[in-house]
Amino acid sequence: MTNANPGLEGVVVADTAVSDVDGERGHLVIAGADVEELARTASFEEAAARVLAAGAAGASAQAAPFAERLGRARAEAWELLPRLGDALDHADGMDALRTALAHLRPGPVWGGAVSADLAGDVDTAIGAIGAGPVLVAAWSRRRAGQAPIAPDPALGHAADYLRMTTGQAPMPAAAAAMNAYLVTVIDHAMSASTFTARVIASTGSDLLSAVVGAIGALKGPLHGGAPGPVLDMLDAIGRPEEAERWLLAELAAGRRIMGMGHRVYRVRDPRAAVLEEAARPLSSDRLALARAVETAASKILRERKPDRPLAANVEFYTAVLLDAVGLPRDQFSPTFAISRVAGWSAHVLEQRRTGRLIRPSSHYTGPRPS
Ligand code: COA
Q1: CB 3.0-4.6 Å disulfide test: which of 177, 222, 317, 336 passes with 276?
Q2: Contacts with 349 (C-beta within 8 Å, 6 or more apart), sequence order
Q3: Is the pLDDT confidence value at 114 over 70?
Q4: pLDDT tens sequence across 25-62
Q5: Residues contacting residue 66 through CB under 8 Å, at least 6 positions apart
């Protein structure tokens, strides 16, 4: 059998109740809610409780005790900081998060039977979701030569993350935008990193190993590593009237336009609109520039690739929003990761309930022994 589908597009590898992407129409449903609705109305805590409950088929916690547990998990991660060795010395925030998170307790391995008792995994998941912002904020401050700031378990997850990063109580608009971001990117069906997490979970390995492996998959620029480069692009372009010239030169140099195109979406990524809206109260000039660059990029790519719709993806307005809330650009990808830990965990819980190994096949192209 030859491999006619090298990208595995369209190959269904799991049933899931966690999220669904309609790439033709540009719809994203997260645990039963449209992403637009969820980002407008839910706290990150509510969204995380919701995806975990979807993954565990209801065996998870309610949002209120969940918020308390998440606050406690942030406090526990803070206690871990002195025991992380040089994990937070990495120059790359994804490396720091991957290494630091690996210090958490791994949680149970699969006992050999399909089990509905996922309590140990849910505990590990909440520990990892809570630890993410503490570790990334501490890494970011360390890079800036500043002491880490302890979490405040009574604060919302998004507001506490910003406070631990900047050292100041965030403005309500910034906390709201941060929350909308974390909710928006919490899960996205069978992305490369989610597939990674599910493959690891499918072997019966522990939840933390799956999350750590998924961080490695998310790090690449074709997946979660694009928002920093998008901001670099906006800086390099500078003024809307420069957009077309700069983009044409970029394509002529054989480079891709960051923040444009998607493996699944054939229309604009619905998360781009959600994040553009969420960033509006904070950003005016940069948002206007981003809009102009997106318009120019869409036009040029439409002319170049009439058969392959290439529209703005989530990373385009992630860059604008995370910059507007005051995060440095090397913290963008780790910020994506600390939200997606919840989605990965939900998929691990779901995979666990199947008890089935994911083992695809390959097409051998090497010589045969004569
Ligand atoms: N800029 C310029 N050209 C692009 C492009 C972009 N952002 N994205 C895709 N293309 C072109 C490819 O060069 C290819 O052209 P070719 O057929 O002449 O070789 C064609 O469109 C199809 O691209 P392909 O690589 O098959 O698409 P994909 O589904 O594998 O890639 C992405 C999806 C996201 C990896 C890709 O669009 C990309 O690299 N985008 C930029 C990085 C980014 O924003 N990543 C974040 C993703 S959320």
Answers
A1: 317
A2: 52, 55, 56, 59, 60, 118, 121, 122, 125, 207
A3: no
A4: 999 999 999 999 999 999 999 999 999 999 998 755 55
A5: 45, 46, 48, 49, 60, 126
